[in-house]
Amino acid sequence: MKENIIGRETEKDLLSRIYTSNSSEFVAICGRRRVGKTFLIREFFEEEMVFQCTGVANAGTEAQLRSFYHTLHRYDINVSDVPTSWIDAFEMLISYLDSIPSKRKVVFIDEMPWMDTKGSQFISALEHFWNGWASARRDIVLIVCGSATSWMMDKLINNHGGLYGRLTHRIFLYPFTLGETEQMLTSRGVSMSRYEIAEAYMIMGGIPYYLNMLDSRLSLAQNVDRLMFNPNGELYNEFDMLYRSLFSNSESYMKVVECLNSKGYGMTRSEIANASGIKSGKTLTTILSNLESCGFIRKYINYGCNERKSLYQLIDFFTLFYFRFMRNSSFRNLQYWTSIQRTPKFYAWAGISFEILSACHIAGIKRKLGIAGVATSTYSWRSKSDDSDRAVQIDLVIERADNTIDICEMKFTEQEYAITKDYDHILRQKVGTFIEETKTRKSVHLVFVTSCGLRHNMYSGSVQAEVVLDDLF
């Protein structure tokens, strides 16, 4: 039922408009494994769906057709024979849909990439179904879904054959925001402070399936140990399964994210090519595009540089956590995460992750700054200086249309953050170097984004605005 869907307001509005349109619709839903694609469609169209089927993992054409037949037979007992081809299978589906009294008909095919087995001619049959029958009607809503992002992009979204330009809508489903994560945990009776929710988010991201595994009887640290560091934990081997389910040639994708993990602020395309050994051509373009579509990486411009020098940054929290703590087998003990709580290693990870968390919730920062309706562009910035004493890096720069630039500093602490005399000197040098090198004539404001607020002392006066964790929810 629609009321069971947490968040997803934009997607629900679009699906409503799709259902009430006056023409047939062909919709592709993409997104990473476990992000909630199937749940969204099944819950939203529970009463309107007239047919839904799912591809069979690691099965051949014959098994796929037999599964399709058995599913269709549950809807239409007049279907008597197992189809011998996908053309026959879709003709059976057409006969069934034609028999339904006139109304809007939602057809949902889940895990479609699994159906496209070698030599099956599945895509040709799908083209025939849509181009030869469904598109000429006004009552069909065909929704297809799959976690195999590379297949969805190549065979549907970027199709240059019979399905070229045939999709009427494509939806990329992204992880929950902090606010949606809080809603989900509350609905399940999981009691956490917002500080703990942020920590959980920096480990799992806003992936509903992962969050649903949290046991309300345990602390967050106990849950992480149980799920990720216990050999029997549900997420112990998730990393390999995640990339292999999403991408063909997954080894190349993992090479790219491993390279990006080595440089937290990001790498240029040429740097990625050199580090990974993947030539800077069509293959690398596809890998970067697919990773960006799934929300694993973000592409941004270093302030003052042209787009050719764009940087790619790894922002998937689960992947970052895996590389930092899970890949090394020596970390794999039953109480590892519990044992490093509030240690320097924990705070080093949390500080970097909170910077990415803040960048992923730029809308909350803009709301707090009172510029939600102001056009902005976001960047990072690194000084050109080779002098280590003058080298400056700013992780988040917000350039505003009102002739202002916000330089954001992010700090994740358990109590108010206090600016010291030495850090005040660093901040002033950072702002001064930025103005000097960029030669900007705009007003430059220093903004602090913190988990628990800024302690007001003799050095806090240089900060023009504050954003706290609550503002990101």
Could you explain the architecture of this structure?
The chain is α/β, with parallel strands linked by helices. The chain contains 20 helices and 14 strands. The strands form 4 sheets. Strands 2-3-4-1-5 form a 5-stranded parallel sheet, with helices on both faces. Helix 3 (61-75) runs parallel beside helix 4 (86-99) and helix 4 packs parallel to helix 6. The two termini are 25 Å apart.
What is the compact description of this entry?
The model has no long low-confidence stretch (mean pLDDT 92).
Radius of gyration: 25 Å
Q: What can be said about the biggest beta sheet? A: 5 strands, parallel
**Apparent shape:** elongated
Mean of residue pLDDT values? 92
> What is the beta-strand fraction?
15-25%
| Total E-strand runs | 14
Poorly predicted parts: none
Helix content: 40-55%
- Ends apart, CA distance between termini: 25 Å
Spatial order of strands in the largest sheet: 2-3-4-1-5
SS-derived structural category: alpha/beta
Number of helices: 20
Name the descriptors.
alpha/beta, 473 residues, 20 helices
Secondary structure elements and their pairing?
Elements: H1 9-19, E1 25-30, H2 37-44, E2 49-54, H3 61-75, H4 86-99, E3 105-110, H5 112-115, H6 122-132, E4 140-145, H7 149-157, E5 169-172, H8 178-187, H9 194-204, H10 208-211, H11 220-229, H12 238-246, H13 250-262, H14 269-276, H15 282-293, E6 297-300, E7 311-314, H16 317-326, H17 336-339, H18 344-360, H19 362-369, E8 376-382, E9 393-400, E10 404-411, E11 417-418, H20 421-438, E12 443-450, E13 454-455, E14 465-468
Parallel strand pairs: 1-4, 1-5, 2-3, 3-4, 10-12, 11-13, 12-14
Antiparallel strand pairs: 6-7, 8-9, 9-10
